[in-house]
User: What shape does this take?
Amino acid sequence: MSEVQRKKYSDKDKNSIFDQEFMPHIDSMYNFAYRLTFDEDDAKDLVQDTYLKAYRFINSFEKGTNAKAWLFRILKNSFINEYRKKSKQPSKVDYQEVETYYNSDNVDYNMTSDLRVDAVKDMLGDEISNALNSLAVDFRTVIILCDLEGFTYEEMAKILDIPIGTVRSRLHRARNLLKEKLKAYAQNMGYDTEEE
Amino acid sequence: MENNFDSSNQRKLNCSDASKCFKLLESILDGQADLESKAVLDEKLAKCQPCFEHFHLEKAIREVLRTKCTKQLVPLELVDSIRQKIQDLK
Ligand SMILES: [Zn+2]
Assistant: This one.
């Protein structure tokens, strides 16, 4: 997934790669962009910029390899470089703080949750979405990549430029935070969240 | 003390190494573990109540995220706009 130019595709090849390997991912790309920016116009710009960059750097893409991961990496980098500054999301301020807090591979797996399986299964799509959207961007991102888009830890490590151990621990923390949010929803719905 | 799971009588109520167990359970749910770990998983689910509960909660959360999370429809004009911009590049 490097930016080094390896290929020299003909225009015909370029068009076929673009149509057959890049464009089929536009739904996933737009959803990712929307969950990063929370704004339809910003999401459209981000996806468009990503596709233009993908076309411009198409010679560094190996035909038939993992186009989706390659595109997601470009989108995520564009977001960090260009959109994060102006994005309306509330979590941008504490980014540095959060970054230093969770960038260790030591995670406490002992934390138990009194959230109940039944309560989770009864949640509505909007409640799940809102809980996810309320997480800080880096936690939100790993959950989107893993659970909504089905990327492996290895693919996520490449997309995010972080070690696999960090993917694992960030994901674990993200899910714990999500559980806290879902627990609050469950309590509002009148579910008994106590074990006994 | 009542519990929802009938079979829990046979499971131990405290996990001897929750940290290691939960890490394994989560890897398996994320599709990262090999067959050998899956055999270990079956044993844990049969014998350990905290592992059993953690596994099913984590599984439920992944399922609702995958199946229920609201998806935004791609604006119709976006594809055309991208194709137009690519044409302009050429
Ligand atoms: Zn256990």
